[in-house]
Amino acid sequence: MKGLILSGGKGTRLYPLTYTSAKQLIPIANRPVLVRVIEAIRDAGITEIGLVVGDTAPEIERVVKQGTQWGVNITYIRQESPLGLAHAVKISQDFLGDERFVMFLGDNVIQGGISPLIGKFAESGYNAQVVLTRVDQPQQYGVAELGADKRIIRLVEKPKDPPSDLALVGIYMFDPHIFEAVNSIAPSWRGELEITDAIQWLIEHQYNVHPYIHTGWWIDTGRPGDMLTANSLALEELTPVIEGYVDRESEVDSRVTVERGAEIINSVVRGPAIIGQDTRLVNAYVGPFTSIYHHCLIENAEISRSIVLEYSQICNVGHRIEDSLIGRHVVVQRSPMRPRAYKFTLGDHSQLGLVGEGA
Question: What sign has the CA pseudo-torsion 140, 146, 152, 154?
Fold first, then answer.
């Protein structure tokens, strides 16, 4: 089998962070979401991966390169315009050839990897396998209706009256018949070739489309709140290790990872949390469910349930920062100006001054 990862989206729901960065490269537990997807496909035994990219291609290529650092071989496939998931399959036909493949959205995070479902598909005679999970608000997703034989009868995109609570996760497995489908369907009202329409075409033409119901957690990291939730869940899966320096005055509990070159001075860190390479904590408090990426400085400040990206500084802030997503090269420091504010989604290279008594 081969793998196909879709990484062409602009990430508009994560503005302002994604004005200057691909959304798939935002780290979850200090690993970019796209890297997590690559590793999940590799761990399922697939090493030939096509990566569909768009406007953010240069940045993705700079980070991912040819994939050798993860033991895979990456082929880049350029999608000039965001014309739909089925269009991404269509333009990838030369890469995929006649092989079965797994398609994975590059901004999704799933518990437990995909090895079990890849194994099930590889041993089956299914023409397609669609990963589903139960959700609380199915009207916000593509939804599958199953028949008495547990096969998919139809797919409905964001229905007002959902036929079930089984939403499409964004992980699909196909055999070459999918190319018949993507070449037969017409664009939707959005002007895109919809993957739901292609799968519905397979169903209507009597191909075997099998549902795989995922029972663990799954997060589409398209919004800041979803990103923080995914970060919290991923942190709980880490095996903590201390590779950096922790001085005697600091308290670091057993659920904390301290990466190589990091320094923790007179600080308290409560896990699950991760402190990235060459990051310094000085007179700081880092609370649970927080990821601090590499080359950051947290000094005389407190932060919890947040993500801080690389080369950012939070210094002399008198009140705790919570539930925040802070971009690259951001400077957060005390300012004499008022009024006060302590919840942020900050874009790259931002500078924000905070006021606080005793800060």
Answer: negative
